[in-house]
Amino acid sequence: MTETNDPSRRRFLTGALAAGGAVAATRVAAQAVPDPAITEVQPWAQYLGAGVDAAPYGMPSKHEAHVVRRNVEWLTADTVSSINFTPLHELDGIITPNGVCFERHHSGVAEVDPGEYRLMINGLVDTPLVFTLEDLKRFPRENHAYFLECAANTGMEWRGAQLNGCQFTHGMIHNVMYTGVPLRLLLEEAGVKSSAAWVLPEGADAAAMTRSVPLAKALDDCLVAFKMNGEALRPEQGYPVRLVVPGWEGNMWVKWLRRIEIGDQPWHHREETSKYTDLLHDGRARRFTWEMDAKSVITNPSPQAPILHGPGPTVLTGLAWSGRGTIPRVDVTLDGGANWHQARMSGPSLDKSLHRFYYEFDWDGGPLLLQSRAHDSTGYVQPTKDMLREVRGENSIYHNNGIQTWAVNENGEAENVEVS
Ligand code: MTE
Ligand code: CO
Asked: Beta-strand (E) ranges in 132-270?
């Protein structure tokens, strides 16, 4: 506290700002003039703070209360069979904190008692088996960060720009470090018959949601997960156990996983016929479009995160991902595609995980048309929305990975527009 009155320290601060090395800093920081935020003793320095037993489970600062999942009321008839969205514009890095992972439920959150939890494996197996949660924890486990994207993410944007904010246009995604047992180990324990070709995971919620998953995927990288970001799964995310189907559409990641049936054919249930198929312009539908194509979005600036600081050094950032691998490169444009610049990737580049990119630029205060374009490790490049519609028509909802545009005006306010 006495430091602010220490003349030698004041001299040091002024000296540093005057030095050549501080040129960049003075463009984004205020000059060293008397500032009550520095010269006055602030309330938090006048009293003792809360003790170590005040928050046995820690919560974010009260100043971060706006960083929450949000739903769009008119999208669904009620909040039980509904969706909320991850506040992507408030996050950084690549991991989604557990409390803000978007939720999609067909029958609300099932409250499963872990003591009564059972996972059954039946069908084309040598020995049908039932596992308790404790049984699952006796198999070798693995840790992987994977994104989960609902196939309906960005689905409202097929026919043109609609929702104002990346939370709503792209927030049906989260990226979590899972701990779980490879599904392969459980299937080996039951002994899969040679005629088997498909598995049917089923949820314990009132929707008893099911999806047909090819056996090859089940044996490849699927996890029966019980931890997210180090702690038990949240009830919203399927506590105590969910299926992780890396790179594939979120609907297949069955929550509150209670049964896996093994069969020789797909079941053609609701979620793979009337839902999660893509109606083409000629009336035929694409089905079994499991893999999530490469996609990206600029999270800042964006409609919920305008530029508030005026012209000058500006940080643009966003997320990119691919269900087929990693993202070695993202391009960004400030002028609706006239000029593209390679963004700077930062953070780990993990298979089928979110990737973080940045592009620092000097904003001249003029209007901007911001877009990002992801390249994945297979060489696939994220298409424009027009390119998607050329192939798939206008009837689709799912698998919209087209390039997103934000129009920024002279006040730094951003709006969802389409430039294809
Ligand atoms: N599993 C069950 N049992 N019930 C559900 O309603 N919703 C699915 C999938 N698994 C669902 C489910 C859908 S459509 C998606 S996109 C993801 O869970 C959402 O996972 P999240 O709630 O962790 O974001
Ligand atoms: Co979904």
From this structure: 142-149, 173-182, 198-203, 213-214, 223-228, 231-232, 242-244, 257-263
